[in-house]
Amino acid sequence: MKNMIIPIFFLFSLLFSSSLGSIQDFCVADYSAPQGPAGYSCKDPAKVTVDNFVYSGLGVPGNTTNIIKAAVTTAFDNQFPGVNGLGISLARADLAACGVIPFHTHPGASEVLIVIEGTLCAGFVSSANNVYLKSLNKGDVMVFPQGLLHFQLNAGNTSALFFVGFNSPNPGLQLLDFALFKNDLPTELVAAASFLSPAEIKRLKAVLGGTG
């Protein structure tokens, strides 16, 4: 046993010395360099300024004159270079009366929401198909686990505003309705996979811009 202590101690010393030696204060996104699986390359620290760590886009209301009566403004790494590599990001959602953020997933992050104005009906569906649904008012906070289908609906008669945070600089997004109906899959295939009628699928494809 004693003979094992020194090699194990040496191994951990190498691991810790290597990890500590590679620590950086930040990795501001370099948009001029190629983007890899781990995200953007790091900008030369000599060229980093305080403006790289400040983003004003979330202070502007989004345009809700669209089919879902909602707008989402993101502060992900492709808009906000300072969050690159930090494991965080933010977004703003504006919902007109009856506005909705349809069922969607974020494959790369969990989400935490705080209501600023209005009343929301929000919920998610677990992988066991259990539904977690709640009416949220100003100041309420709700979390949505990574990868699970969730939605937010304006349940009031006035505009609603909420902010969300993610534990990733780019959480990813897939809207369920778009995945099903904003594509060129043949209607017959979508019908077989979704149990919807071909007529309804064609109607939804026409609304959302799909073909087939």
From TrEMBL:
Name the major location: secreted
**CDD domains in the cross-refs:** cupin_OxOx (cd02241)
UniProt-recorded name of the protein: Germin-like protein
Indicate where this protein resides in the cell. Answer: Secreted, Extracellular space, Apoplast
Q: Which residues bind Mn(2+)?
A: H104, H106, E111, H150
Concerning Pfam families, the annotation shows: Cupin_1 (PF00190)
Provide the family line. Answer: Belongs to the germin family.
- What Gene Ontology molecular-function terms does this entry list? manganese ion binding
Q: Give binding positions for oxalate.
A: H106, E111
Q: Give the range the annotation lists for the signal sequence.
A: 1-21
SMART domains (alphabetical): Cupin_1
Keywords from the named record: Apoplast, Disulfide bond, Glycoprotein, Manganese, Metal-binding, Receptor, Secreted, Signal
Instruction: One GO cellular component term, please give it.
Output: apoplast
Q: Which InterPro entries match?
A: Cupin_1 (IPR006045), Germin (IPR001929), Germin_Mn-BS (IPR019780), RmlC-like_jellyroll (IPR014710), RmlC_Cupin_sf (IPR011051)
Cupin type-1 domain spans which residues? 56-202
Q: What are the cysteine partners in each disulfide bond?
A: C27-C42
Q: Which organism is it from?
A: Ficus carica
